[in-house]
Amino acid sequence: MKNHFHAIFPNDKFLDLRPYQYGWEACAPLHSFGPFIRNHFLFHYIIDGYGTLYSHAVNGDIHEYRLGPNQGFLICPGQINLYTADEEQPWEYVWLEFDGMRAKEFLLKAGLEQNQPIYQPGSMEQGNKLRDHMLYFTENAAKSPLHLVGHLSLFLDELIEFSADRRKADEKKGQDYYIHEAVVYIQQNYQRELTVDEVADFCKLNRNYFSRRFKELTGSTPQEFLIKQRLTSAAELLRITDQPIKNIADQCGYPNQLHFSQAFKKYYGLSPREWRRQNS
Questions:
Q1: Distance between CA atoms of 111 and 165, rounded to whole angstroms?
Q2: Which residues sit opposite 75 in a β-bridge?
Q3: Maximum distance among all alpha carbons in the chain?
Q4: What tens digit of pLDDT does each residue of 257-272 get?
Q5: pLDDT digits (tens, 9 = 90+) for 156-199
C-alpha cells in the first residue's frame, strides 16, 4: 500500500506566491528528517499520530515540541530543523513547500514565524478543511500551474482565518501602503537602471527604514526583490522567445551581457544559454 506522495511544482513564473513541492506521508516508527536547512517555507499538517519537532529559534536556542493530530508546524528558509516520528504512534502528515514575495506577510497574519512555528486551528472542523485543502495538491498535481497558485492563495487565506493565534490586522498603516507601492514601482521600472534610493524617494521614506520595513513585509531586501524580478522575467523570455540573449539582458535591466550571465547563473545554477536549452 502506498504510504507517501511527493510532487514538484513545474513552473517558476510567479513572484507573489509560488508552490515548490508538496506531498503526503505516513511515516515509519522513529522516521526522522534532518538536520536540514530549507530554502523556502515548509508547512506540515498532522493528520494522525505523533512526533517531535526540534526547531531553532532566531537566537539559536533549540525548542522541542511534541505534536499530534490537528496541529501544524512551520519551517522557515535558512532555519536548521529536525523532526522525528513517534516510536509507538508515528505521525501521518501532509506538507507544502512554498515561497514568494508575500508569503512571509501571510504567515505572520496566521501567527507563524521562526520563533512561533506551531499552528493550532480554532476547531477540529477548521483543521479538517485545512487538511483537505493541502491534500488537494497531492490529488491534483496534473492541474495547471496557475490553478495550483490560485489554490495556494486559498490555502493561505484559510490558514489565516482558522488560526487560533491569528493576528488581526490593524488598519493598513501608511508605511505598509508605501511598501506595496514600492513593489509596484519596481515591477514597472525594473527594465532600466534603478536604485534603492530612487525607490525610497518615490515612497517618501528614509532609505534605512524603507529597506528594513520592505524586508519585514516581503522577506527580501529591495535589491534582492529587484534582482528576482529581473531574472524571473529574463527566464520567461528565454523560455517563450528566440530573442538573442543580449536583447533579453538589455530588456531586463542588464545592459552588460556578461553581468547578466553571471547574475543569471548565480540565481538559477545554469548559464542563460544552457537554461534556455533545458527549458524552452
A1: 5
A2: 42
A3: 61
A4: 999 999 999 888 889 9
A5: 999 999 998 775 544 445 557 788 888 889 988 999 999 999 99
Query: What domain range is 218 assigned to?
Result: 174-279
Residue 169 lies in a domain: no
Tell me how many domains the chain contains.
2
pLDDT tens column, 120-147: 998 999 999 999 999 998 888 888 888 8
Residue 132 contacts by C-beta under 8 Å, 6 or more apart in sequence? none
Q: Among 162, 185, 212, where does a domain finish? A: 162
* 146 plus 180 within the same structural domain: no
Q: How confident is the model at residue 5 (pLDDT cuts 50, 70, 90)?
A: low
Segment 215-258, tens digit of pLDDT: 887 778 999 989 988 998 898 889 888 899 999 999 999 999 99
d(CA 272, CA 231): 10
User: Residue 51 domain-assigned?
Assistant: yes
3-state secondary structure the chain: CCCEEEEECCCCCCCCCEEEEEEEEECCCCCEEEEEECCCEEEEEEEECEEEEEEECCCCCEEEEEECCCCEEEECCCCEEEEEECCCCECEEEEEEEECCCHHHHHHHCCCECCECEECECCHHHHHHHHHHHHHHHHCCCCCHHHHHHHHHHHHHHHHHHECCCCCCCCCCHHHHHHHHHHHHHHHHCCCCCCHHHHHHHHCCCHHHHHHHHHHHHCCCHHHHHHHHHHHHHHHHHHHCCCCHHHHHHHCCCCCHHHHHHHHHHHHCCCHHHHHHHHC
